[in-house]
Design brief:
There is one protein chain. The two termini are 29 Å apart. A 6-stranded mixed β-sheet has the order 2-1-3-6-12-13. It has a 4-stranded antiparallel β-sheet with strand order 8-9-7-10. Strands 4-5-11 form a 3-stranded antiparallel β-sheet, covered by helices on one side. The chain is of the alpha/beta class. Helices cover 30% and strands 26% of the residues. It is built from 6 helices and 13 strands. It binds ribulose-5-phosphate. The site of ribulose-5-phosphate has 18 residues, from helix 2 and helix 4. Keywords: Isomerase.
Length: 227
């Protein structure tokens, strides 16, 4: 993914700043994407300096990065809870999120929702007055046609996400496909989230409603924290 120099620096600041929130003995959810990657690397540096944490990865990508950073890993079903999760987002409006640009939103939502505290790390380009990006919807492959019909009746325009480097759809870590669904401006994210969750064949969607505790917005010269 191409990012401007300013955006890249903002992502780095946002991601790295959240590593300071991690405390000794905690179980930490490790989000997916280029901004969360900065947090993972910074936590790895802290582990090298003696911080005792266990990470719960949210994707193949974040697991690989955490292994490289030498963060001890556990799966969600091996721990009593998650103290803190750090994750990126594709759009943020009033604390509500659209996620799933990396097709990892199903595992991300499970880990983020399980965490006592969710810190979201973004650059300023992710901020909006209203959510209006397409909503990623992870779908069981055989259910795609019926889910597409249901999404259309909900006012959406679904497009199957295709893989950039090979002829075929993106396949998630869970073996499913992703429909990117345009709804225009989303005035009631909680209502749409509930409707999407009720569609048989939908594994998970990328609307994260009332999950974020803090939004860390990286800037050229620092980080704004919104609660
Ligand atoms: C992956 C996600 C990512 O957190 C989201 O796409 C943001 O990525 P980046 O920090 O690279 O902009 O939801 O499913």
């Amino acid at each position: 993914m191409k990012t401007s120099g300013g955006s890249a620096a903002a992502k780095r600041r946002a991601g790295e700043s959240t590593a300071d929130a991690v405390e000794d003995g905690q179980v930490v959810g490790l989000g997916t994407g280029s901004t969360a990657a900065h947090a993972i690397r910074a936590i790895g540096d802290a582990v090298a300096d003696g911080l005792d944490v266990r990470g719960v990865p949210t994707s193949f990508q974040s697991r690989q990065l955490a292994i490289e950073a030498e963060i001890p890993l556990v799966e969600l079903d091996e721990v009593d809870g998650v103290d803190l999760a750090i994750d990126g987002a594709d759009q943020v409006a009033g604390g509500q999120l659209i996620k799933g640009g990396g097709a990892a939103h199903a595992r991300e939502k499970i880990v983020d929702a399980a965490a006592d505290r969710l810190l979201v790390v973004v650059d300023p380009g992710k901020l909006a007055d209203r959510l209006d990006r397409s909503v990623p919807v992870e779908v069981l492959p055989a259910a795609r046609p019926v889910v597409e019909d249901r999404l259309a009746t909900l006012g959406g325009e679904p497009t199957l996400r295709s893989a950039e480097r090979k002829d075929g759809p993106v396949v998630t870590d869970n073996g499913n496909v992703v429909l990117d669904c345009e709804f225009g401006a989303i005035d009631a994210p909680a209502d749409l989230a509930a409707e999407l969750s009720s569609v048989p064949g939908v594994v998970e969607h990328g609307l994260f409603v009332n999950l974020a505790d803090e939004i860390h917005v990286g800037r050229e010269d620092g980080v704004d924290v919104r609660t």
